[in-house]
Automatic annotation (TrEMBL):
Similarity annotation: Belongs to the sulfatase family.
Protein name (Swiss-Prot/TrEMBL): Arylsulfatase
CDD domains: PAS_like
Keyword ATP-binding applies: no
SUPFAM superfamilies per record: Alkaline phosphatase-like (SSF53649)
InterPro entries documented for this protein: Alkaline_phosphatase_core_sf, Sulfatase, Sulfatase_CS, Sulfatase_N
Organism: Roseivivax lentus
Length: 524
């Protein structure tokens, strides 16, 4: 998706509007209420990479996610939570509470356009001009830990240890193997990892991303217990980002589960979402994207291959959930769970691009031979430690049910994430479908009085029952990514998606009633 030319052509209005919004939001930034009631609470923020809105059982999915579903059942679910359409912009806002264009990630470093090179806000690393939530909480007496994908800079002054984390174990790159140092493409063939300030030449024995990240975080928390300080822990899973790979004994957990195909599965997920109360009874599925065929039109061999993609993806999501359960068990056993807030969400929508298919379709393109030369891309190997496979647009639209679009899009499928917030003191089982929320709000919520200068809004009144919506005054959430733009206030969302993925014009939707963005109201 290349929106650079469009971005130059039509972004003046959006920049002016965004400037006004930023000024208003900044004036309303949190400066008072906190979640602390006596003893300072611990905070655990868990982020999945490219997980879809409907993948969890508690959000309508058939994938087994008992640990996250338990958090959802005993905590709160929020269905109108917005993130960036790709990973590093979201991560920059999560760590600062400020719009990604103001903190160096106006675009992903890997996608920086020629006209953006050298411009403030497009440095491709997390700006040192603003403090991170780790730095703010550290100053407030917290121990700070991070394990997982960073994707906000590689140099010594931009790694987690330099941005407020007492202990950290991090993948610095965008993606790559979940078992070894192999990178994601020819531009990033070998991944970089750091532990604290040390750049690693090899990975721990038995390394698998979800396992090792969780184990590292548990060890850091345990090590810090003797300090008596509360902690902030950031667990940034690399899963289920492609390549889709799982430990050997998890390879066949979903064999045959997806033989019905993507069309039937989308309908099944929507029906469950309605029963659960995740979406309104009037919600309709977004139409199948124009370039996705009907599953029933595929030949038998093609169906077998396509269903295998989703089988591996589901195993990867279940394994992530298993590791969340291991973290929860540790916190409970060590007596720290009852004073801990846990937040879970995805950095963006599901990934619909398939680099292997793109390489096959454009063999003359530079880098096309890199994948088969560095990974096994054959069907028989899919899911194994040495393989590379992505699940593609058809299954990404399933993961995004009932929305249109996926990662990289300004339609709901790219920017709306499941959100779970848990604390023992909460009244469990509630689903909030009305609160308009944004990833920038999280630092403002955690920082309390230390959150001055942030653009997000605190969820403290929402989580403590004093309010039902942090933007009940008509406050707006907005974003611009790759030429795609959106702004939402209340139930209504204006969106501009460049062709061929959109109409290259402004559209208006009532996304509270029409989350699939099927009825354009701009001409009404």
């Amino acid at each position: 998706m290349d929106g650079h030319a469009h971005s130059i052509r039509c972004s003046t209005f959006f920049r002016q509007t965004l400037g006004i919004l930023v000024a208003v939001i900044s004036a309303l930034a949190l400066c008072g209420p906190t979640l602390a009631q006596g003893k300072k609470p611990n905070f655990v923020v868990i982020v999945a990479d490219d997980l879809g809105f409907s993948d969890l059982g508690s959000f309508g999915g058939e994938i087994r996610t008992p640990n996250l579903d338990r958090l959802a059942k005993n905590g709160m679910r929020f269905t109108e939570f917005y993130v960036g359409s790709t990973c590093s912009p979201t991560r920059s806002m999560l760590l600062t509470g400020i719009d990604n264009h103001r903190v160096g990630l106006g675009n992903m470093y890997e996608r920086t356009a020629p006209n953006q090179l050298g411009l403030e806000g497009y440095e491709g690393v997390l700006s040192t001009r603003v403090p991170t939530i780790a730095e703010r909480l550290k100053a407030a007496g917290y121990r700070t830990y991070m394990a997982g994908k960073w994707h906000l800079g590689h140099s010594p002054r931009h790694i987690p240890a330099a941005r407020g984390f007492d202990r950290s174990f991090s993948l610095l790159n965008v993606a790559g193997s979940h078992f070894d140092l192999r990178g994601a493409n020819q531009d990033s063939p070998i991944n970089e990892f750091v532990e604290d300030n040390a750049y690693l030449r090899k990975l721990p024995r038995g390394y698998y991303s979800s396992l090792t990240f969780t184990d590292k975080l548990k060890s850091y928390i345990d090590e810090g217990r003797k300090s008596g300080q509360p902690f902030f822990a950031y667990l940034a899973f690399q899963a289920p980002h492609d390549p889709l790979q799982v430990p050997k004994r998890w390879l066949w957990k979903y064999k045959g589960k997806y033989d019905m195909g993507w069309d039937d599965l989308r309908r099944q997920r929507l029906a469950r979402q309605k029963r659960l109360g995740i979406v309104s009874n009037s919600a309709q599925l977004a139409p199948r994207l124009w370039y996705i065929p009907s599953y029933d039109d595929l030949l038998g061999a093609a169906q077998v291959q396509q269903s295998r993609r989703m089988e591996v993806y589901a195993s990867m999501v279940e394994y992530l959930d298993f590791q969340v359960g291991e973290l929860i068990k540790y916190l409970e056993k060590s007596g720290q769970l009852d004073n801990t807030y846990i937040l879970f969400f995805s950095d963006n929508g599901p990934e619909g691009n398939d680099p292997i298919q793109q390489a096959k379709q454009r063999p003359a393109l530079s880098g096309s031979a890199w994948y088969p030369n560095n990974y096994d891309t054959q069907f028989a190997s899919w899911g194994r430690s040495y393989s590379y496979m992505a699940y593609g647009a058809p299954w990404a639209q399933v993961s995004a049910t009932p929305f249109s679009g996926y990662k990289g899009s300004a339609f709901e499928g790219g920017i709306r994430s499941p959100l779970i917030v848990w604390h023992k003191g909460m009244k469990g089982g509630r689903i909030n479908r009305g609160a308009l929320m944004h990833v920038k709000d999280i630092p403002a919520t955690l920082a309390g009085a230390n959150g001055r200068g942030m653009q997000g809004r605190s969820w403290v009144p929402l989580l403590t029952g004093q309010s039902k919506n942090p933007r009940s005054d008509g406050g707006i959430v907005a974003g611009q990514y790759f030429g795609a733009q959106f702004a939402r206030s209340g139930s209504y969302k204006a969106v501009w998606m460049p062709k061929p993925f959109g109409k290259d014009q402004w559209q208006l939707f009532d996304v509270s009633k029409d989350p699939g963005e099927t009825r354009d109201l701009s001409g009404v």
